Amino acid sequence: MRIRVRSILTIGFGIVVGLFALATLVTIGSVSRVRNLEGNLAHFDHAKHEGHLTLSAVQKAFMHQSRMLIRGEPSDMDEYNEACRAARQRLNQLEEASRSVGVTEGAEDIRRTFDELERYFGEAVLPALGESRSEAIGYHNHLAALTEHAGTINEDLNFILEERAADVRGELESVLKLTQAATVTMLSLSVLVAVIVAVALVRFIARPVAELHRALNAIGGGTMNVHVTAGGPSELVDLAHGFNDMVSALQESRRLIAEQERRAAIGELAAGIAHELNNPLGVIRGYLKVLRKEVEGEQPNKDIDIITDEVNQCQRIVQGLLELARPQALEKQPTELVGLVREVLERLDKARAAEGPTISFTPAAPAIQATVDGQAMKRVLVNLVNNAGDAAGPGGEIDITLEESEGLFVISVSDSGAGIPADIRDDLFKPFKTTKPDGTGLGLAISDALVRAHGGRIEVADGAKGGALFRVIVPITSGAGAET
Ligand code: ADP
């Protein structure tokens, strides 16, 4: 099975476009994945930032607690309360930010520690403000330890967040690498396929087209012996076959035109010669008559008989040449062929010697109509039957059939003679090819020209009775009216 141009283009460009589309989809998909991961990283940073802010808010509250402890009086209560409120707000934001990245423990622990710091200050430290220095140092140490604990928790939280962020960064890195590898692979593949398609186009399409182009140029330059090799997709194979057929047809029609021109030239020349010979031959015949009268009664005049025979032969040749020169002057009209054949046979029967061959005629139908020049067809038939009679000889047989099929009629004449002599078989229809002592060799040439003028042909084969078989094949309607 041969592939078509359309298939090559569709498959090739389909693969290239498909790979481009895939590369685009992969890129778009990975861009959105990268965006997600970068968003996650931003959330981690945000959570860490919130942790720092929360810790400094807690430290600020502790700072107010320390100041009040040092002063021994609740002098900073307003600032302290404000710092506590700010620290709680920060704690809420830290919890929210941690939750958004899936980490809950740290923020809750800091809250618990801050609750304890606040509770301890409110319940134990505040009522004891202004007491001894050593007790104040103990309170301060406890409050500092709680604040430090909050800082440690925040460090742990930071560590967890950093670890998770590192995982996300790793994932981001591998997504980028994978995307890069997939995009490069698919783009390289599509370039490779594009190159393969281009090579296939050049090999399977451009080359045969170039060969056709060269062949066309050669024909344009007058070289008719051109043949293109049928290769490539089926359309180009069909084109190459069509081209070769066209060249063959062109060669055949050139040959036919040359043949027709040759025949026309010979015909013209023959007609000229025949016309010029006719008059002198007439004069010779007249003088022969006079001569015969003058020597009448003296002795049997053999020489005059020989001259008369030869002059008659010359006149037959001249007559034949004239017929050969004007075979196309046909007057075609509707003619009934069965009757026409019978008429010819009756006339020949009267003219032939009694011991001549037996003639049988078998028409396929009682009547067969065709548009032909009746006189020309009779001339052809007379010639073929006379030849068959000469070949079959006394006591021989001639079979004639007439049939009609597919717009053609066929008259077959076969005989029981020895068949066509091998030495003239190839040139049978050329003028002056004869094996008979008194033959002109013009009968078949004239018949062939007349049948061709009807758009038909004469075929020769071996007949069933050992002799030759001539088949006259002519279109039933080869166009009415006179032809020139
Ligand atoms: P002619 O009859 O004057 O020779 P034709 O052109 O009619 O010219 O025939 C040419 C030659 O073809 C004949 O001389 C003969 O050798 C051969 N020929 C024609 N018809 C037959 C036939 N039926 N059987 C054998 N040979 C034939």
* Mean model confidence by pLDDT: 89
Q: Total number of helical segments? A: 9
Strand order of the largest sheet: 2-4-5-7-6
Q: Beta fraction of the residues?
A: 5-15%
The poorly predicted ranges are: 480-484
Q: How would you spell out the order of helices and strands?
A: HHHHHHEHEEHEEHEEE
- How far apart are the termini? 52 Å
Number of domains: 3
**Which ions and ligands are bound to the chains?**
adenosine-5'-diphosphate
Helix percent reads 55-70%
Quaternary structure:
single chain
Helix/strand structural class: alpha+beta
Largest sheet features: 5 strands, mixed
Q: How would you describe the shape? A: rod-shaped
Overall radius of gyration = 60 Å
Question: Could you walk me through the main structural features you see in this protein, from its secondary elements to its overall organization?
Answer:
With 484 residues, the chain is of the alpha+beta class. It folds into 3 domains: 5-194; 224-326, Helix Hairpins, CATH 1.10.287; 328-483, 2-Layer Sandwich (Heat Shock Protein 90). The chain has helices at residues 5-71, 77-100, 105-125, 133-220, 234-294, 302-325, 337-351, 374-392, 443-453; strands at 330-336, 358-363, 369-372, 397-405, 408-415, 457-462, 468-475, 481-483. Helix content is 68%, strand content 11%. It is built from 9 helices and 8 strands. A 5-stranded mixed β-sheet has the order 2-4-5-7-6, with helices on one face. α1 (5-71) runs antiparallel to α2 (77-100) and α3 runs antiparallel to α4 (133-220). Mean pLDDT is 89; it is low at 480-484. The structure holds adenosine-5'-diphosphate.
